[in-house]
Design goal:
Elements: H1 2-10, H2 14-25, H3 29-38, E1 46-52, H4 58-71, E2 76-81, H5 93-104, E3 108-113, H6 122-135, E4 140-146, H7 150-157, E5 161-166, H8 172-178, E6 187-190, H9 198-209, E7 221-223, H10 232-249, H11 251-283, H12 285-294, H13 300-311
Parallel strand pairs: 1-4, 1-5, 2-3, 2-4, 5-6, 6-7
Bound molecules: guanosine-5'-triphosphate and magnesium ion.
């Protein structure tokens, strides 16, 4: 059955792609089997992370960006790692119509991913989803995440190019800095540039970048008005420019290696944890160890060691 699904996916069938993604997201064995078969067909896509605060206009901008890339005849996969995303529900009407256009385009595939229950961690699952979309011949895969916590930083960090969105307004920039989000930006965007203080925000971001950063790549700071599509051509150019930089500087190779290592370790971690839990639950060992920590008979380090040893 998987063979046929995989063949159909490679043939461009959206339904087969959806099925495979569901298997992968739910951690089913069929998902792993499909990943094995698909892996030889991957390595082509450019993965772009788009991250920023809730409501900063990520989905609107991603939609506009997808439309721009379609005029450049590139195929697009969009992954929205966010349960409240307008890609799944609740978009304002005008946006919904434009979103529908995208959905009907055979060159675009949109997937909303819930943040719950990813066994190997959210970043690992997102990575797998991106790999499947890569096999499904998407030239560009855009991953939207709310830049709120470490999880999201890790998800954004699995991308080749990371776009961080800020909006004009008192204090917002500082919040982004606190979350450690700006450090991972390859491109900075001040969206909602139709609102006051956009220039001030851009200047603050500029000052932050000058605090000392990267070698070789100068992080552009772009202003966009996503609802009007303004600045989107420049953003698409900047993303393509970053891709070229990665290729010519040898960074892409380096990034691929980093990504491979992270993926391997995340998957191994998930697998080990599920083995340990399976055996500890089977023999009631887990609860015993928890009790002995609570009673202060055993320190947590020793208890963890025993848990692992018991699973061997
Ligand atoms: N004025 C103005 N509003 C914008 C702009 N871009 C997006 N918006 C509006 O901002 C609101 C949030 O936009 P979304 O695209 O849903 O933002 P998001 O970051 O994806 O939001 P979450 O996924 O919920 O975190 C919507 O009402 C958009 O219409 C812009 O450039 N200017
Ligand atoms: Mg959104």
């Amino acid at each position: 059955m998987i063979d046929e699904l995989v063949a159909r996916l490679l043939d461009g069938d959206k339904w087969a792609l959806s099925r495979v993604l569901s298997f992968v997201e739910n951690g089913y064995p069929e998902g792993r089997e499909a990943m094995k078969a698909l892996f030889g067909h991957t390595g082509h896509a450019h993965i772009v992370g788009v991250t920023g605060a809730t409501g900063s206009g990520k989905s609107t901008l991603v939609g506009a960006l997808a439309r721009e890339y379609r005029t450049r005849e590139r195929t697009i996969g969009i992954v929205a790692v966010d349960p409240s995303s307008p890609f799944s529900r609740g978009a304002v009407l005008g946006d919904r119509i434009r979103m529908q256009e995208l959905t009907l385009d055979p060159g675009v595939f949109i997937r909303s991913m819930a943040t719950r229950g990813a066994l190997g961690g959210l970043a690992a699952t997102t990575n797998d989803v991106a790999t499947v979309l890569d096999a499904a011949h998407k030239d560009l895969i855009i991953v939207e995440t709310v830049g709120a916590g470490q999880d999201e930083v890790e998800v954004a960090d699995t991308a080749h190019t990371t776009v961080v969105i800020s909006v004009p307004g008192a204090g917002d920039e500082v919040q982004a800095i606190k979350a450690g989000i700006l450090e991972i930006a390859d491109i900075l965007v001040v969206n909602k540039a139709d609102q006051p203080r956009a220039d001030i925000t851009a200047q603050q971001l500029h000052a932050f970048l000058n605090l000392g950063r990267d070698e070789g790549w100068e992080v552009p700071i772009l202003k966009t008005v996503a609802i009007k599509g303004q600045g989107v051509v420049e953003l698409a150019d900047a993303i393509d420019g970053h891709r070229s930089f990665l290729e010519t500087s040898g960074r892409l190779e380096e990034a691929r290696r980093t990504r491979a290592r992270r993926q391997l370790l995340a998957l191994a971690q998930g697998e080990l944890l599920s083995r340990v839990l399976a055996s500890a639950e089977a023999n009631g060992h887990l609860e015993e160890l928890v009790e002995s920590i609570v009673r202060r008979e055993l320190d947590p380090h020793t208890a963890a060691q025993r848990l692992i040893e018991a699973a061997d």
